[in-house]
Amino acid sequence: xxxxxxxxxxxxxxxxxxxxxxxxxxxxxxxxxxxxxxxxxxxxxxxxxxxxxxxxxxxxxxxxxxxxxxxxxxxxxxxxxxxxxxxxxxxxxxxxxxxxxxxxxxxxxxxxxxxxxxxxxxxxxxxxxxxxxxxxxxxxxxxxxxxxxxxxxxxxxxxxxxxxxxxxxxxxxxxxxxxxxxxxxxxxxxxxxxxxxxxxxxxxxxxxxxxxxxxxxxxxxxxxxxxxxxxxxxxxxxxxxxxxxxxxxxxxxxxxxxxxxxxxxxxxxxxxxxxxxxxxxxxxxxxxxxxxxxxxxxxxxxxxxxxxxxxxx
Length: 313
Description:
Elements: E1 10-13, H1 16-22, E2 26-32, E3 36-42, E4 48-55, E5 60-63, E6 69-70, E7 83-88, E8 91-95, E9 100-105, E10 112-116, H2 122-131, H3 147-152, E11 157-160, E12 166-169, H4 171-177, H5 179-185, E13 196-198, H6 203-213, H7 222-234, H8 238-249, H9 255-268, H10 271-284, H11 290-296, H12 299-310
Parallel strand pairs: 11-13
Antiparallel strand pairs: 1-5, 2-3, 3-4, 4-5, 4-6, 7-8, 8-9, 9-10, 11-12
């Protein structure tokens, strides 16, 4: 049962009895905590599998506009072995011990990209997901069970930091949750023989972003939070940006931290944080000598900072 309205899929009135008929030929199902149950149902008189969700309270059926995949070549005798796992409301893993598919739907469930995933790596992740994740986090990803995949199976893609370190990740996790990286993996930005990408941020900052994407518990130092303002904004991770902004605003900053945050906000063109950090700089500026100030800022930044500080009431 759900109490929140959902916008995904084609919506139609559906009684409980009608819904039972809708999923009479059920292929697989899964649950996303805080949302509800999702059903992979075979369309009547066909071998096409559609995604369905039922709002029992409102008696509304949500159904994908397109089929996710066809059962051509799949034995009906093995259907009971099929497992499905929801990463979020638009991304699902479906598979058995012999094959695995990644279904990535649009927000409205109007399109679906079905991808066969490396069977040597993902089944371990599927078994881990089946066990679930016990820790509690306040992000949209943390309850998906992905945190256990990171330690349960070797990664197949590498993020290289500005300080020369490498962080191993899983494509099957990163692609659905990080649009920038998905596009990079599918473009000429990444050499297929290398399976890696360079990111212009420190290892510690990238590690926080990766931990977020795996739904792991976050421990964020101030500089990493300030760097994440740039990284999350640059790479389209809005929830991580909110977490970073909240983190820096919860910090009682000294003058060095205030300047560092201002520089990151200036780089990210984040006007709210520029104004916030400029206010802190104005209050704390007597604690810093002019020579120290010049050491931290180039000419363009120095001019912009004084404009921002002078505009503070």
